[in-house]
From TrEMBL:
SUPFAM superfamilies: alpha/beta-Hydrolases (SSF53474), Peptidase/esterase 'gauge' domain (SSF50993). Pfam families: Peptidase_S9, Peptidase_S9_N. This is Prolyl oligopeptidase family protein. Residues 6-407 form the Peptidase S9A N-terminal domain.
Amino acid sequence: MGKTSHNTPPEEATDPYLWLEEVDAEQALEWVKAQNAVAQARLEAADGFESLRADLLAILDSDDRIPFVVKRGEHYYNFWQDKDHPRGLWRRTTPDEYRKPQPQWETLIDVDALNATEGENWVWHGAHCLKPRDPDEPYRHCLISLSRGGADADVTREFDLVDKRWVDDGFFRAEAKGALSWIDENTVYAYTDFGEGSLTASGYPRIVKEWRRGTPLSAAATVYSGEPDDMSIGAVHDHTRGYERDFVVRSRAFYDNELYLRAEEGTLLRIDVPNSARKQVHRRWLMLELREPWSVAGETYPAGALLATDFDAFIAGERKFRVLFAPSETTSLAATTWTRNHLILNVLDNVKNRLYVLTPGEGKWAQEPLVGAPGIGTVSVSAVDDEESDDYFMIVTGYLTPTTLYYGRVGETPHKLKAAPAFFETEGLAVSQHFATSRDGTRVPYFMVAGEDLETDGKNPTLLYGYGGFEVSLTPGYSGGVGRGWLSQGGVYVVANIRGGGEYGPRWHRAALKAERHTAYEDFAAVAEDLIARGITSPSHLGIQGGSNGGLLVGNMLVTYPQRFGAVVCQVPLLDMRRYHRLLAGASWMAEYGDPDSDDWQFLSQYSPYHNLGAEADYPPLLLMTSTRDDRVHPGHARKMMARMSEQGHEVFYYENIEGGHGGAADNRQQAYMQALAYTFLRQTLFPRPPIRR
């Protein structure tokens, strides 16, 4: 895993740190351990580190957290981790029991016990359970995904929910990126590593097969084969009674996919809609969320619009669409949720949620606000059972509002079902939204959490967080870790809604793609400058944090705007944009960043932090954090950045978790430890005075 390419371009041959890309090589791991020791010695010895780590772990392990559930038949299912079960329990209860303050749970799989029995290091990756054909029959057949150490690659095993045991000689998929997906109790779709040539350049499945129970995987019949340069191939059977259909999905790139309807005889019919559109087939409806303008049948629909049409009529050639949502300058579609008879739209208006209920009718869809939806806070909705009822779960959260779970039915006022406890003191704190002006005049929103009596003397330790990529929206949410690790210490917390994200729909995302990536970085720098201009903070007290694509963001802040920041926490980052597409899943992100082997390198080279480091530059202190087991963003990015900066004499600290996958941590203990390292580093570098505890 993670080996360097044998076709290294000449300009890369001079990189003295390519050997650090050999993930499990003894020399590389010894180097990692040496770097870890330096950071750990510095940060673990700090006053308050151990108490902070213990507090963060107590928050993560708290029994008072909300056990979120998924309904399958007559049970609610939940995956739970705590201090006694660090790798977790997959368990279930009944709806009536779940309403109680302390439900009684039936454990199905104890991952810690499984690890002890098998001598493994399994991390839970989820369960895919087959809906029974007869609604009166119980759920029985489940496909369980388990990952070694938290990597994206995992194994699939079959579990019997009635007998509560692993199925002897059941379906089994060996470790790889991919999955199994139920067609019926004796048949699955398999998309995985079938051997040489069966994976894409991104390391994902290129082939999907139909596999019958009791036959070897090698005998499975090929359903579809993609191209090596595709991102991934998959397939799914829609089990909705009366609307059973099979689909194949060919993902050519992140924003370029084809949807095929599979007929009984095995032929595939491509759904003739834009590749860039998000596609959903629900019962009789084909739903399209456009990422680009689309002209069809004499009509032009804007990017960001949600369209609906009758699926069978569309297959027959009709091209009549109804616009269910059209964006404005301040609104975008955040999510859609089907219940049995209604479609709930979740709309962002200046990064604030508004919910509406649409009801299909002959010739038109009625629309009204969702009864009882809160006017403030971040709100998300999911159906309890979209085939059986119009009931829904609603989650409400905010920076200072502990997460609350509601149970509702369309047309009725929802009621509170469960609420998480407060993990930090919020009295005297307030949330506000502001707008900075970017270099090109664009207004960029950001949220700030700070004391109501905040002094504008420029001395407030401030942590600025951002992401800005892949159309991901950063909305307010409660975090006990941020509260205890930063706000309770007297720090100011800021989240920037920069371009590249999805806060204003596809246009906000596309504004920072490829050659326009610089706009995301200019937006983030503008927010930093606005905080300084308003007297909230000053460069020596302003820290920044980001992970993955956000790690690339803060890496660029480090090398491009070092004078604006006093500390940088860079987690599981991309940093070498010359080789990112050659490492693990990197090739799948070229639609976002560009192709370094083409003329795109002219602009990519401008935002490749690894290539823009300078020995004479005055960089703020940096903490790099990654995971050996991250098989999505290669740990070589962080390793090489650390090595080059150390060679140049900069102040940089490094910690690499030996397991944990792209999330960085495999269990709560590891997560609490890594959070404590980050907050301790920020506290040491940004506080002008001893931190206070709220």
